[in-house]
Design brief:
Layout: H1 4-18, E1 21-26, H2 44-49, E2 54-59, H3 61-64, E3 74-77, E4 84-87, H4 95-112, E5 117-119, E6 131-134, E7 143-145, H5 148-156, E8 162-164, H6 171-193, H7 197-212, H8 216-227, H9 234-249, H10 255-266, H11 275-289, H12 296-308, H13 312-315
Parallel strand pairs: 1-2, 1-5, 3-6, 5-8
Antiparallel strand pairs: 3-4, 6-7
Helix pairs in contact: 4-5, 7-8, 8-9, 10-11, 11-12
Length: 333
């Protein structure tokens, strides 16, 4: 039989899975035939694995701004910081049409309450980075730019987590993005359901170890914001906290940083664990350091001890349960 504290944690985890988080996505990756050649770029992981917990909001800039399928392929032309989008063969300029649509679409997505976006890489409309920009309708590319819609979205939603399908193939980037999505979702939920200074203190306390796994310096700065708001207005304080938080979470959670957090958690069991149990746990952490076992192994054992010895502070830490375990994001070596 599950203990009451374990039941509460199970209910919390189940609620986190049941409440589907809204994410925007380039529609072709859900299997929609919207690409210039009339085809798609279905991503099975995004649609069928993440799709169990994510409510996708599909977007195809080129189709939604009024272009047909199939259609002539396009490219970015001109200034990499402010390129135009033209068809490759006939050189027809769709920049004004596209930008007009983007202005209305970002407003619609704000109402959709999206908590992140997955863009199609290498697209002149959706590519997040490294998109070739040409000096004219022909010739050799002169630089790298950002797809028109991706740029418009990221400028409008500064703190919203974004990633492209190519980088999501890298396990570390995938986990970091999904972790950020869940943190951002909880932040917005906090603002909607609580939004108090006291609530900010609790929010920070529950995310402290997770933030520490990305930046030990930033977790201190955020702690000061939450504990000593001073004369800063609440809106300005919350904006600064969110900006600092989401900037910190973009930093990679390395093995070294994770080990620092794992050892920090171990310190909470100085009196409870036997010398043999401590030695076992330190050995497991060392195996993780040497890449002989994935992060999920020490985390699972520490989560077990947190419940066994009823450590309320640790049980509330999202570091030990940042996203649904079904994603198996911490199972990678």
């Amino acid at each position: 039989m599950l203990r009451p504290c374990t039941i509460r944690q199970h209910v919390l985890a189940q609620k986190q899975m049941d409440e589907k988080i809204k994410l925007g996505i380039s529609a072709c990756m859900l299997g929609e035939n919207v690409r210039h050649d009339g085809g798609h770029k279905l991503d099975h992981y995004l649609k069928y694995t993440l799709g169990k917990f994510i409510q996708w909001v599909p977007v195809c800039p080129e189709v939604e701004c009024g272009l047909p399928t199939p259609r002539e392929s396009m490219q970015l032309v001109g200034d990499p910081e402010n390129p135009r989008i033209l068809t490759i063969k006939t050189h027809k300029d769709y920049t004004v049409q596209m930008k007009k649509w983007i202005c209305s679409k970002v407003v619609a997505l704000k109402h959709e309450n999206v908590n992140g976006f997955v863009f199609k890489s290498k697209s002149p409309s959706c590519g997040m980075q490294g998109i070739k920009v040409y000096p004219s309708s022909s010739g050799i590319s002169v630089g790298k730019g950002i797809g028109l819609f991706a740029r418009g979205f990221m400028e409008k939603f500064t703190y919203v987590p974004t990633e492209d399908d190519c980088h999501l193939q890298v396990p570390e980037r995938r986990e970091n993005f999904i972790e950020n999505v869940f943190v951002f979702y909880r932040w917005k939920k906090f603002l909607k359901e609580d939004g108090s200074i006291k609530g900010l203190t609790t929010f920070h306390a529950n995310h402290k170890l997770l933030i520490m796994s990305h930046s030990t310096e930033t977790v201190k700065d955020l702690g000061k914001m939450a504990a000593q708001p001073g004369g800063t207005g609440k809106k300005d304080l919350f904006d600064q906290y969110c900006k600092t938080l989401m900037t910190a979470l973009k930093l990679k959670a390395t093995v070294k940083k994770n080990i620092n957090v794992l050892q920090h958690i171990l310190g909470y069991f100085k009196r409870e664990l036997s010398s043999w149990e401590k030695k076992e746990l330190l050995g497991i952490i060392e195996q993780y350091r040497e890449k002989q076992s994935p992060l999920i192994v020490p985390v699972t054992l520490l989560r077990h001890y947190a419940h066994k010895y009823d450590k309320e502070y640790l049980k509330s830490q999202y570091y030990l349960n940042p996203h649904p375990m079904e994603f198996r994001l911490r199972n990678q070596f």
